[in-house]
Amino acid sequence: MNEIQLCLSEMQAFFQSGTTLGISWRKEQLKRLKDGIRSYEKQILNALYEDLGKTDFEGFATELGIVYAEIDEHLKHLEAWAGRHRVKSSLLSFPSKAYTIAQPLGIVLIMSPWNYPFQLTIAPLISAIAAGNCVILKPSRYSGHTAMVIEELLSKLFYSNHVATFQGGAEMNRELLQHRYDHIFFTGSPQVGRLVMESAAKHVTPVTLELGGKSPVIVEADADIGLAARRIIWGKCLNAGQTCVAPDYVLVERKVANALLEQMKSAITSMFGSDPLHSSDLGNIINEKHFSRLIELFAYGTLAWGGQIDPKTRRIAPTIITDPQLDSALMQEEIFGPILPLVPYDTFEQALAFVQKREHPLALYCFTNNKEHQKQILRSLSFGGGCINDVVMHLSNSALPFGGVGNSGMGAYHGKEGFKTFSHTKSILESKTWLEIKLRYAPYRGKLALIKRLFS
């Protein structure tokens, strides 16, 4: 029996013991997790800097802070989420009462990415623990420093029959996916997401896929151009552009395209100085492979600003590209770096059509004060989530579900939605015995008119 199978067997026995069913026990685990993270804050922030060049501010704001908020949200509402919920009874089942209860799924596999290696590992773990499950975690090998800190921390906090961490690359991923789980939660690229789904299908295992895609920004002429430029550049340069909901390209009304470009240049200089490559606030690209891929994208348009690189530190200055080749990798693949193409449009309908012809994005942002256009965007475009007159900030609200649609993913989490993802909602009808209505029993002759009235 290999290590994974042994771990699964021990988890199965632990889950079947019923220990994870207790709400107070689950809350105790969440509190232990929060205390453990607090005691490891410095190690976590150091690891994020080693892997991605994140400052302590960015590491806390985008990773630790969000995790703390998730834990607090689950602790506050767990009893209500896990409790019995009455629903309306049906006249057909009178006399009875109906209700739902949330039941843990069992053993879940969480596979996390490298770009937000702490948050995107621990946030789903919080929901899985709160829902009463046992969890196998597989962090990305690309963010190796953070992965090792996660393993060390969790091994001190939890027994391996409750939460276990497995390290490795593609070979470990394939080995893990050969086994059966009660749910698989994957965050990563659509390409790998398809492989995860194929493996899960062999065991009829449900999946949550948090993928990516090209998240557009629409900027209209009536928008506050200076504000739009600052917020777009901030969102694009967060984690050096390695954010699944980062603005991937900007559709800008042609009459304000030059003004937006100039304001973006100003925003870059304001945030990162005249020499961004040496700014302590700009992170680095995760590895050589992704660094080289990003540099190749420069060739698919006109370099309007930036373009400086430092191979030693794997840093790329915030770069704006105009006249992008629409059939190139720059406009067909998720960029995942601090490179931003600008695409002008003449009419609002052109902007809508441009987005509609492409895969559904994980996020969409629009900057406009036109209320009717805001409504049209929300009504006619399919995307995971987004903001009006802002970018990325919808992730800061744990009450908002986070997830994609179509090629950008399936399923959602954060807050209550995360608890629901790792739970099965069991439906119960509790019939009374003090009255027996025999309408449902044969013989049925002469009963059709009455049953029709009950259904009408």
From TrEMBL:
Residue ranges of every copy of the Aldehyde dehydrogenase domain listed in the record: 8-428
Active-site residues, Swiss-Prot/TrEMBL: 210
Gene3D superfamilies, per database record: Aldehyde Dehydrogenase, Chain A, domain 1 (3.40.605.10), Aldehyde Dehydrogenase, Chain A, domain 2 (3.40.309.10)
Coiled coil: none
InterPro entries hit by this protein: Ald_DH/histidinol_DH (IPR016161), Ald_DH_C (IPR016163), Ald_DH_CS_GLU (IPR029510), Ald_DH_N (IPR016162), Aldehyde_DH_dom (IPR015590), Aldehyde_DH_NAD(P) (IPR012394)
Highest taxon above the source species: Bacteria
Keywords for this protein: Oxidoreductase
UniProt family annotation: Belongs to the aldehyde dehydrogenase family.
Record's protein name: Aldehyde dehydrogenase
